[in-house]
Amino acid sequence: MDALNGTTKIIEIDSPVSRFGPYLTGPNLAGGLAIAFLVQFIYQIVYYRYFHPLKDFDGPFWGSVTRLWHTYQNIRGIELETYDRLLKEKNTNILRISPTELLIPSALSLPQIYHRQAVKTKWYVTGALGPGESVFNMQQHSHHAHFRRLIAGPYSMSKMVKNEPLIDDIIIAWIRKLNDMFAQQDKAFDMSRWATFAAFDVISLVGFGEAFGFVDTATDVDDLIEELHKGFFYFGIVGRMYPFVEFIKKTWLGRFLVSSEKDKGGMGFLIRWTNRIMKARQKELAEGGKDKGRVDLLQSFYEARDAQGQPLTEDHIRAECMLLFTAGADTTGTTMGAMMAYLLSNPTVYAKMVAEIDAAFESGVLSTPVPAASEVSKNCPYYVACVKESLRLCPSAPNIFPRLVQADHAPLVIDGKTIPVGTEVTSTAYMANRDPAVYGKDANEFRPERWLENNGEAGKVFDKYLATFGYGTRSCLGKDLAMIELMKTPLMFFRAFNPRLCLPSKETPSPKRILVGAMFYWDDIWMKLEKRDIPGFTW
């Protein structure tokens, strides 16, 4: 009340909107956001470059201040070449490739980086392979060890050799198809695709109980391989940008980042494939219980039980099946493609290897029509050396697989430098497998003889540091299956045919190795075949 005239006085208080509303225009808001972004970006540059614990480690300027740099290199498919060039230019054995990550290419450092208790970073849990978590994604070593014990048994060599007769059937069908379609027709074909066809039929047989029919139909069934490569590309991007991805996943946009069966292609396509296989198996189990006598990996996932008798969740089984697709087939096909490209480009090595194979068959130490993997590994040392040299020079997963430096573990010291706690550290199989300190000054050359030198003692050292299948307790579960395939499939190919690479042309381009995401694959290994007369094989 106004004490003098008895009226009520209304006090007007300006609201922020009324006061600043005239200034809240679209251009002003955009300008303000741009300034805020610029300030944040400048702060990030200054902090990461001059105040971060990794400030004293050499690396490219943009790589030290933003993850966009190595993501861009990966998208271009030149990440490994770029790292190799920078390591040489800066004359260093440790390269800072992102604000929080160091690349350590030395093979001798692998035991320190990938030790038993090493923790994986969030690079692995972006949702690129779907919402579930497989043993590949699990960050904590204790969590990984628990679930690895549940599913590792069927992957063992003793269990995998029981699948050899079934694998032999696929190899024989593959050889016959190559003969009918190409050798008999004197027709050029792309071996990179056919190597992958054989590998996909093997992994689908061992993993899910029946071959998907890549060899039989002579096609990429439902474009599965093409969609897998698209998924690799996405995986490479979101892994490198995981802090941003983790932030977005907490918003309403997160559902667009995690791969799902609703996605049209890439990993979404593979998830739909996996779901269809799992539903068919669930129906089969419901109708017939365990009487079907299944021995494939999918069945072992369903039958796995922990100490409390609990089964794996559906999401976990789906994740392990996805891992079979992404890591179990195209990877073996890549090594087979590498063998073709390397051997047919080295006539002396090729002739020596074929002579050893022929002599082993003629002496009876290799069974017909398809020898056991154990027979090959025991009696064909030069062939085995060719396989291992191909694995060394062309690891199917050649890229970064980071671990976290922990406070509760022994300090990580590389070349006299202590790596700060909390740092992401990684090597790459591509670089570690070419380390001159282990493999010699000619480490970049294809020379299988290196594995047999010093009465095989050199090969033992190489085996210790070979990073193609990963390293340490988290190495690839499917290694034994891959080695069985590699002991048999390429050997039978070289036994059955005289292959020759086509001269480069528009129709038959030169072989090329392609990096997509974290994976290598081959393209354009164009060749022609001449059928060989081999005893004990029915064409």
Verbal overview:
With 539 residues, the protein is α+β, with helices and mostly antiparallel strands. It has a domain at 130-397 and 468-531: Cytochrome p450 (Orthogonal Bundle), CATH 1.10.630.10. Helices cover 50% and strands 8% of the residues. It contains 24 helices and 12 strands. It has helices at residues 16-20, 26-50, 61-65, 68-76, 79-89, 110-113, 141-151, 157-160, 164-183, 191-208, 214-217, 224-240, 242-249, 267-288, 297-303, 314-328, 330-344, 347-363, 373-379, 381-393, 429-432, 436-439, 457-465, 479-496, and strands at residues 95-98, 101-103, 119-120, 189-190, 403-404, 413-414, 417-418, 424-426, 497-501, 512-516, 519-523, 526-531. The strands form 4 sheets. The chain has a 5-stranded mixed sheet with strand order 1-2-8-5-3. A 3-stranded antiparallel sheet has the order 4-12-9. It has a two-stranded antiparallel ribbon with strand order 6-7. Strand 10 and strand 11 form a beta hairpin. Helix 9 runs antiparallel to helix 10, helix 17 packs across helix 20 (381-393) and helix 19 (373-379) packs across helix 24. It is globular and about 75 Å long. It starts with 15 loop residues before the first helix and ends in an 8-residue tail after the last strand. Residues 1-13 have low confidence and may be disordered.
